[in-house]
Amino acid sequence: MELRSFTGRDDLASALARFVADALEHRIRRDGKAALAVSGGRTPTRFFEALAGERLPWSDVVVTLVDERWVDEDSPRSNAALVRRHLLHGPAGAAEFVPLWRPVPTPEDGLAAVSAAIADLPHPFAAVVLGMGDDGHTASFFPGGDRLAEALDPAGTAPVLPMRAPGAGEPRITLTLPLLLAADRVAIHVEGDGKMAVLDAARAGDDVAEMPVRAVLRAAHPPAVFWCG
Ligand SMILES: O=C(O)[C@H](O)[C@@H](O)[C@H](O)[C@H](O)COP(=O)(O)O
């Protein structure tokens, strides 16, 4: 992995926004459209606001999520609601947004529709921004996840899978590893000394089932890790 360290959260947010905006501009110049997949959780808010301030041809950008909790957008746990609130406003509101949640009871019920919507996006993605949990999960690749091996299979062909895991809270839906790693640029965004300790532990071992983020750290085209203390 390539570590990019910052002294403050705002500096990190600006640099990550530029890293993503460069990738989007490049893909738009080449293909006319570009897709971006972002993570939810608590970390990305500042980055979303910085990215929303980038001058981009936003109507040529499609935004989706790396993963989603199976909750409607009124829930405080909805990643889609977070993206709408902090990224898709002002000029960035012209971007198309493809959410991963559908108003059906389970991720299995929504899987066909979500898979079709993801297949329709411009591929490969220009950029993917991942987060990381204290248990070493990334996207919804959780330790103990019921479909973890399938989601991490480098030869897997499903773009999207449901995921249930003890540490996941509600059922989830996630883009799969090969789709994410095919992106032009992959970043992992982590903040705080605790997350750096988790990253160090991940780098020190091999067992992907124990810390699934290892599958991303060891990718042939390794991610850029954006970190600040
Ligand atoms: O929906 C989610 O939960 C995420 O996409 C997930 O993979 C997240 O990136 C990590 O759990 C880190 O979350 P925090 O930023 O809240 O620590």
Automatic annotation (TrEMBL):
InterPro entries on file: 6-phosphogluconolactonase_DevB, 6PGL, Glc/Gal-6P_isomerase, NagB/RpiA_transferase-like
Its recorded reaction(s) are: 6-phospho-D-glucono-1,5-lactone + H2O = 6-phospho-D-gluconate + H(+)
Query: Could you tell me which pathway this protein works in?
Result: Carbohydrate degradation; pentose phosphate pathway; D-ribulose 5-phosphate from D-glucose 6-phosphate (oxidative stage): step 2/3
Q: Which GO terms describe its molecular function?
A: 6-phosphogluconolactonase activity
Q: Which domain of life is it from?
A: Bacteria
Keyword Hydrolase (UniProt): yes
Segments forming domain Glucosamine/galactosamine-6-phosphate isomerase: 9-218
- Gene3D superfamilies given in the database record: 3.40.50.1360
What EC number(s) has UniProt assigned to this enzyme? 3.1.1.31
Top enzyme class of this protein? hydrolase
Q: Name one GO biological process term.
A: pentose-phosphate shunt
Q: Which is one Pfam family of this protein?
A: Glucosamine_iso
Claim: NAD is one of the keywords in the record: no
Q: Which SUPFAM superfamilies match?
A: NagB/RpiA/CoA transferase-like
> Which keywords belong to this entry?
Hydrolase
Family classification? Belongs to the glucosamine/galactosamine-6-phosphate isomerase family. 6-phosphogluconolactonase subfamily.
Role: Hydrolysis of 6-phosphogluconolactone to 6-phosphogluconate.
What's the protein called, per UniProt?
A: 6-phosphogluconolactonase
